[in-house]
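Ticket #4471: structure export looks truncated?
Reporter: QA, pipeline team
Priority: medium

Steps to reproduce: submit the single chain below to the structure queue and open the exported record.
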Amino acid sequence: MQVTAHLWKRRAFLLSLLMTSLCLVSAQTPLTTIDMPQGGRIVYGKVQGADTQGTAMTHVLRIMHDNCKDKPQIGKVFKMRGTDSVGLFFTVVNRPAGNVQVAGLIIAAGSGAHQAEAALVSDRADRFGSTINPMLTKLFSVWHPAGATAVSTSAPATKSAATAPAAGAHSAPPAALHTVSAPDGSATIGIPDGWTLDPNSGRGTMVVSGPRGEQVGLSMTRTAIDPWHPQQVQLARSGLRSVLPGTLVYPFRGDMVKSFPEMFQAWRRAAGRPPVQMKLDEIKPMPAVQGNHCASAKGHMDPDGKGMQTFSSYMCAFDPSPANGMYMVTLSHSMWPDALADQGLNTVQAVINSWRVNQQVVNQQTASTVQQMNANTQAAIRRNQQIVGDIKQIGADATARYNATQAANDAQHAAWNQSQDNISRNTQGFSNYLLDQTVIHDVQDPNTHVTVWNNAAEAWKKAYPDRIEEVPTSQYINGQDY
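Actual output as written to the record:
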């Protein structure tokens, strides 16, 4: 069986399924559509050619992306209590319908000998929380696929069977979001009611916080100095080294897995914050473009002495300048109280995935900064030349300081431009890591990428070891993978 033919066979049915649920096209036989009187739509039916639940759900999400012209923001797949079926909460913007915010639940049941079936319940995001339970009660009163017959329809209105998955599942839907913009117009992000945007957000960086201790900081950037670099050691001995406020001071080693704990503490010191108690549950290197070193970390920390919180971080460091040991560090960091459990994770993930950078604005800001730095450099040259004309030795010393400044500026320019070029790609790697997703492609069609769950990716690679490959972050395609 050819991989491509197999994929497109499943996509054909799911295309009609998604168009019915999200893009408001009439259902086609044998699908059944139910429009609920209180709001919301139900669509269910058999998925022709699908033999696993995971495969069916993967293609549902892919076609949802294609037809709504927006990437769905999803929670983690969970098993529905008392059944053999699985569910997945999502949000998506239906752009052809006028950028309508949609929320919903995908359910897949049956596999192998039992042909997989799928169902979608969806509504406008601002009312999905109040319409999901009536929709599920109606769905399971008429839809009885293999593996889903054990669902009870007598659940109370505040908690349906679909919102009570097995222990450890991420079932709680994210909170509804509204969009806020950075003061300089360089980025937007969706946040729930009660959350606030840090007024210092800008240049593509967004920092937001919630009323219960939730925090999300995306693409935060700091200039760093390796104090052990020979040039920095010499400057320190001569008393000429000055560290600007906000600068991270930490020896560059290139191994972010080993460096992350102490570099994170150095990041906090640069912000004027005390050390934080941290317990790492997982840390691993992440793929990155040449000259950039990245690691992801998950665990728990007590940032303010009020108790442990769950955190997830994605930190990268660029190679330092050989001339002066200066380098750039970027950090995307999210945190939420342990008490919020799955609801905190899914809401934070929805916030992260809503982040949009206006690259045109960022590029203009970068060009303006470079122009100003060049003007400052020229002014410094003129001042230094005047000093040289008056006192030769003083002029020579000033020239040496200028050369050191020029090298530092050049290093900052190069590191800044490189960081902007890779921010979007690294952030998508961070998002895929949180979602347990992998980007794969067929070696016979390398420019067609598909984002799937990690277990689905492993299954494809094992089934077709000579055809299916994982796509590293450095080869993500703009507009397709992020």
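Status: closed, not a bug. The export was complete when the record was re-opened. Leaving a note from the reviewer for reference: The two ends are 30 Å apart (CA to CA).
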